[in-house]
Amino acid sequence: MSTDSDTQSESDAREQLIDLAAEFYDQFADGEVPTMSIPTRTKSNIEYDEDMDVWVYGDRKSTRSAKTVSGAQKLLKATYVIEFLAQQLEEDRSSTLRELYYLSESFDHEEAQFNSQDESNQLIEDLEIVSDVRREEFHMRPEESGATVMGPLLIREQTRRGEREIHCQEDVGEGGYQIPNNPDTIEFLDNDADFALCVETGGMRDRLVENGFDEEHNCIVVHLKGQPARATRRLTKRLHDELGLPVTVFTDGDPWSYRIYGSVAYGSIKSAHLSEYLATPDAQFIGIQPADIVEYDLPTDPLSDSDVNALESELEDPRFQTDYWEEQIELQLDIEKKAEQQSLAARGLDFVTDTYLPERLDAMGVI
Amino acid sequence: MSTDSDTQSESDAREQLIDLAAEFYDQFADGEVPTMSIPTRTKSNIEYDEDMDVWVYGDRKSTRSAKTVSGAQKLLKATYVIEFLAQQLEEDRSSTLRELYYLSESFDHEEAQFNSQDESNQLIEDLEIVSDVRREEFHMRPEESGATVMGPLLIREQTRRGEREIHCQEDVGEGGYQIPNNPDTIEFLDNDADFALCVETGGMRDRLVENGFDEEHNCIVVHLKGQPARATRRLTKRLHDELGLPVTVFTDGDPWSYRIYGSVAYGSIKSAHLSEYLATPDAQFIGIQPADIVEYDLPTDPLSDSDVNALESELEDPRFQTDYWEEQIELQLDIEKKAEQQSLAARGLDFVTDTYLPERLDAMGVI
């Protein structure tokens, strides 16, 4: 982590954190009860930002105040964590969310120790929101890293051991290039890509690579590995914004997979404060669409009760309130069926790469 | 897949499958009712093979016979799958277990189609057992691939796109080298390693890499990613058998994690037919040991009822019937506590690499 921009963002992150602690100090000095105010994080408090083209938190706020014992404890914990993070950045170290939870056992004030990892995770999210600094810039890592990339892309990654130049087809095995926890350590050097294709399942990712889809269509295949990690979503956004590549998302045809698309395109409610950094609003959904289930006569499973509930909840979700999604979701509720992306194999192992994807990409205007 | 040995094993696999179908044919020709006999796959039918040093199936067998309608359907499905696999090998293609399930929809005989993926998975396992050929040699892929490797190891991977030479420290990003679905496509070219350390969680894997543990101790860090995939276990075994490296396993300190160790060292009951290929009987458990919870005074959680049940069931499991495991499990039932590997962070972020692992590795005679 030695580029100028990294050093800059780290010292900014450190300053923002210290400013936050200074605010508590000033509140004390002025004889005020210290408070911290953060946006309410519920579905009813997210709204569309037309300028940035993403969903963000609205104006409703909750206040953490030292007026109550539990509020005071929260602010105490915040100051201990700020001290830890500031020191971590000073030493150019990093840690995981779980390590932070355990580390709190070594805090000298027992009231500052966390009772559960939910509590420490939540505090880190609060600090992200109020300081406007992302977790990655605090050097906090998730438990599991991002997934893999295969495609005509040459990158340079800044590692702790020096720079690595890697071509994501020629310098990797069949498993592809493993996305690091913080993909902002990656610089795009060169590419020969026409679009990015984000794929939900490992089985389908392997099918596309085996069939040489990335080579034939100059396509960067990004494995989402189910609900994508932040690192995967961040890299996808950068492929779109910095390289100008159309981003397409290929998942199973069920409500849980539409949420995967939603998290790539719009971000999640829980992390709407990160939409600007993680969301790719121009990302297009390839399928499996309910219309595909009908058109390609795919093998299906019946919708379960929880599938139906999830679809109905999506009809209420601001992220899915478009003509396209309303039509597709209504159709699915009507046919009462869902299909997996690998069900395309019922038409043969090459159907997805020879027929389905080219037809869909053509219809979407991507190729 | 173009090395001589690969081509050899593929044509062997094809022959074994065709022999199996020929056996049904001969049974028919001789006026016998066709049958297929496979070992019973339960805990009571696994036994220790002293020569190979692994747990394998005992002598108890179940028979699939065409005497009943359901037995006849099973054998019919087996012949269709054998035909598909033989053709797949002929064409040097591969497919996932899930694709096979969907592909069966295209079988011309409706009775040969699978009713669930459990059924097709089970059939592939049966075919592995009776033909003595591994799924990988049938070119059947799992849904999710193996995990990652970081360490002083130079490999050559045979990919469909040609050979790739990759040094697992110098040619990879912080994410490491992604293990391919079939690690037998890897050739070990050179290494400077003293041992392998298999790590359960991503957070701990990242800690070791950040702290440069692989560099300082000439250690190959293999991320298990929870219950390890077959590809990960196969690679681990090869590191031991071909490079003569001691293999150590580092997990959380709870009964579910001991099973992760068990699957690396002894294989699983469900796949005892693969122990010879996947198990590393010399693999040593580093911890977190119940004794460590006491010695290092680690932050803990209380054992749940299901933890207690799992520990008691391990006391009955032939794989854990050693003095060491009985002592550790009894101790854990006594203290009624469990600890995660990242709980070592309560002693600081470097405690695991500066103190805990060196002490344990020294005590185990590895370093």
UniProtKB/TrEMBL annotation, chains A, B:
Is S-adenosyl-L-methionine one of the keywords UniProt gives this record? no
Which residues does the record give as Mg(2+) binding sites? 200, 252
One GO cellular component term of this record is: chromosome
Q: What is the catalytic activity of this protein? A: ATP-dependent breakage, passage and rejoining of double-stranded DNA
- What biological process terms from GO does the record include? DNA replication; DNA topological change
Active site annotation, chain numbering: 102
> Which residue numbers delimit the Topoisomerase 6 subunit A/Spo11 TOPRIM domain?
195-361
Q: Which UniProt keywords apply?
A: ATP-binding, DNA-binding, Isomerase, Magnesium, Metal-binding, Nucleotide-binding, Topoisomerase
Q: Which residues form the Type II DNA topoisomerase VI subunit A all-beta domain?
A: 143-192
> For the Spo11/DNA topoisomerase VI subunit A N-terminal domain, which residue ranges apply?
74-139
The molecular function terms of the Gene Ontology recorded here are: ATP binding; DNA binding; DNA topoisomerase type II (double strand cut, ATP-hydrolyzing) activity; magnesium ion binding
Q: Which cofactor does it need?
A: Mg(2+)
Q: What class of enzyme is it?
A: isomerase
The protein's role, per its UniProt record: Relaxes both positive and negative superturns and exhibits a strong decatenase activity.
User: How does this chain assemble?
Assistant: Homodimer. Heterotetramer of two Top6A and two Top6B chains.
Q: Which family would the database say this protein is a member of?
A: Belongs to the TOP6A family.
Q: Which NCBIfam families match?
A: PRK04342.1-1
Q: What is this protein called?
A: Type 2 DNA topoisomerase 6 subunit A
